[in-house]
Design a protein that fits this description.
With about 325 residues, the chain is α/β, with parallel strands linked by helices. It has twelve helices and twelve strands. The chain has two domains: about 130 residues, 3-Layer(aba) Sandwich (Rossmann fold), CATH 3.40.50.720; about 180 residues, 3-Layer(aba) Sandwich (Rossmann fold), CATH 3.40.50.720.
């Protein structure tokens, strides 16, 4: 029996590639940049499986152009880059990589809280510049993290991980989510459920951990920013379009809020005009899950989804398992 044909849209850690190559015929996009939509179609044509990243948009048109495709394995927990409805209608299984990146992303979210509050990037730049003339009592004054109030929007695995880290800083933790957490979770994390308005008004730091859905697009807009404290700092490690980036730039320029720490952007990799020039920001290139161990586990999990599918099993992280009985042939 011929091995399944797999196209991998970017180079991924060896753990994933090795697993795929042990069971499938694998081709990998050879460039550092993501493929264009047409390049993706040209390279995935005739393949049985596609292993892709969040930079690739897999919509109805792409699926129609790839009639042999049976499974899309997204190497990410979020899957807003894949039209799940279109895939289900087309008889294509979609999988993701949940759970494995939670603590790594929570680490980075807390790093952004600390770096933005204490102006770490500005201080580093000053020290390297040769313009630092020595210690000064009024130099680079920032905001305390310890004993401050942290508002977490989206209280899933990553949001709860940030809450656990906040306990070490003796922070007051508020959270808002579409679904309230069980009482024992609230109690163990010392987190209090509040309305979104209350969270925005009371928090010194606001950390975003929601999926990108129609109802979360521009969740943080000009009106939301206007409800925050002037000393508030916003951190986003979820998805860029959760924040109206133009409104955020205006709020940072006008002093509506004190700062922002961002790992994701509304129009990645482009930034909203004026954002890069703002000193009261820490801007990272979407590295939330970027540890060696975590990225390797993500690649291996995506590969295992593909291998299990072609072995006749249910992929461990199938997002639309109901399609398994009517997969494309």
């Amino acid at each position: 029996m011929a091995k399944p044909q797999v196209f991998v849209s970017r180079n991924i850690p060896q753990a994933g590639l090795a697993l795929l190559r042990a069971h499938c015929e694998v081709s990998v996009w050879p460039h550092d940049r993501p493929p264009t939509t047409q390049e993706l179609i040209d390279n995935a044509r005739g393949k049985d499986a596609l292993v892709c990243l969040l930079t690739e948009r897999i919509d109805a048109a792409v699926l129609a152009a790839l009639p042999s495709l049976k499974i899309v394995a997204n190497v990410a927990v979020g899957y807003d880059n894949v039209d799940l409805t279109a895939a289900t209608q087309a008889g294509v299984v979609v999988t993701n990589t949940p759970g494995v990146l939670d603590d790594t992303t929570a680490d980075l979210a807390f790093a952004l809280i600390l770096a933005t509050a204490r102006r770490v990037v500005e201080a580093d730049a000053l020290t390297r510049s040769g313009r630092w003339t020595g210690w000064g009592i009024m130099q680079l004054l920032g905001h305390d993290v310890h004993h401050a109030t942290l508002g977490i929007i989206g209280f899933g695995r990553i949001g709860r991980g940030v809450a656990r880290r906040a306990r070490g800083f003796e922070m007051t933790v508020l959270y808002h989510d579409a679904l309230r957490a069980p009482e024992d979770v609230e109690r163990s994390l010392e987190a209090r459920y509040v309305t979104l308005d209350e969270l925005l008004r009371q928090s010194d730091f606001i950390s975003l951990h929601v999926p990108l859905l129609p109802q979360t697009h521009h969740l943080i807009d000009a009106a939301a920013l206007g409800k925050m404290k002037r000393t508030a700092i916003v951190v986003n490690t979820s998805r860029g379009p959760v924040i109206d980036e133009a409104a955020l730039v205006a709020a940072l320029k006008e002093g509506t809020i004190a700062g922002a720490g961002l790992d994701v952007y509304e129009h990645e990799p482009r930034l909203a005009p004026g954002l890069a020039a703002l000193p009261n920001t820490v801007l990272l290139p979407h590295i939330g899950s970027a540890s060696i161990a975590t990225r390797s586990k993500m690649a291996e999990m995506a590969a295992q989804n593909v291998v299990t599918f072609f072995a006749g099993g249910v992929p461990p992280n199938a997002l639309n398992p109901d399609v398994l009985g009517r997969v494309r042939r």
